[in-house]
């Protein structure tokens, strides 16, 4: 049996070409899927999720952040730095809870869900720029009784004893939130 090396070489070259094209197509498809397919082309987000627009937030008169280009999350700390501190209420969570519950009055509300107040604690420990989010217990958007919302907003704004985040030797501005879990008008939990 005589082997035609020219014909065999062509078959090998064609086979290698088909394999190269297939691998190239798979690579291109994978690159597109991971880099482009799920990237939104409309409504691209230009700010981070925690961002609070000072022009639209409540209680911003007289409130100023120390560095609007570097507002961190309340829980940020530096690993290994024993001096770093999360943003916290001066009398800690139990003190905050006691203060809120001593002021809150259930006026026969029957609401249930999470009433969330996001705000900024600046580097001086001052709070401002409040945003309200209202959700039912399944975290779907809902509207609470307006009087209940106003009462808890005023109580939350009255909390003045904040310790700002301390990170890498500096007091820092930070995004903070308080979430009230409400059942039948009663506060059953305060987060974080």
Topology at a glance:
Blueprint: H1 5-37, E1 72-73, E2 88-89, H2 92-103, E3 113-121, E4 127-135, H3 146-158, E5 162-163, E6 165-167, E7 170-172, E8 174-183, E9 186-191
Parallel strand pairs: 1-8
Antiparallel strand pairs: 2-5, 3-4, 3-8, 6-7, 8-9
Percentage of residues in strands: 15-25%
Task: Write down how many β-strands occur, each being a DSSP E stretch of 2 or more residues.
Answer: 9
Evaluate the radius of gyration. 28 Å
The first-to-last residue Cα distance is 82 Å
Structural domain count: 2
Secondary-structure-based class equals: alpha+beta
**Overall residue-averaged pLDDT value:** 88
Q: Helical amount among residues, as a percent range?
A: 25-40%
Largest sheet composition: 5 strands, mixed
Helix count, per DSSP? 3
**Principal-axes shape call:** elongated
- Parts with pLDDT < 50 across at least 5 consecutive residues: none
Order of helices and strands: HEEHEEHEEEEE
List keywords for this structure.
192 residues, alpha+beta, 2 domains, five-stranded mixed beta sheet, two-stranded antiparallel sheet, 9 strands
Description:
With 192 residues, the protein is α+β, with helices and mostly antiparallel strands. It has two domains: 1-43; 72-191, no CATH class. It has helices at residues 5-37, 92-103, 146-158; strands spanning 72-73, 88-89, 113-121, 127-135, 162-163, 165-167, 170-172, 174-183, 186-191. Strands 1, 3, 4, 8 and 9 form a five-stranded mixed beta sheet that branches. Strand 3 and strand 4 form a beta hairpin. The model has no long low-confidence stretch (mean pLDDT 88).
């Amino acid at each position: 049996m005589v082997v035609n090396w020219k014909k065999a070489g062509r078959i090998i070259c064609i086979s290698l070409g088909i394999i190269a094209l297939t691998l190239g197509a798979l690579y291109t498809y994978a690159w597109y899927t991971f880099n482009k397919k799920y990237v939104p082309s409309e409504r691209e987000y230009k700010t981070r999720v925690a961002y609070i627009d000072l022009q639209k937030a409540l209680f911003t008169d007289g409130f100023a952040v120390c560095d609007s280009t570097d507002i961190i999350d309340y829980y940020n700390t530096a690993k290994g730095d024993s001096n770093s501190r999360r943003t916290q209420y001066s009398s800690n969570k139990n003190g905050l809870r006691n203060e809120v519950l001593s002021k809150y009055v259930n006026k026969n509300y029957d609401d249930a869900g999470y009433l969330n107040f996001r705000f900024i604690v600046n580097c001086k420990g001052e709070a401002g720029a409040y945003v309200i989010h209202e959700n039912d217990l399944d975290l779907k958007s809902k509207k609470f009784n307006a009087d209940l919302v106003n009462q808890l907003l005023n109580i939350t704004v009255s909390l003045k004893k904040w310790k700002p985040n301390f990170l890498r030797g500096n007091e820092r501005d930070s995004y903070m939130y308080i979430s009230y879990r409400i059942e039948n008008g009663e506060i059953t939990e305060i987060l974080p």
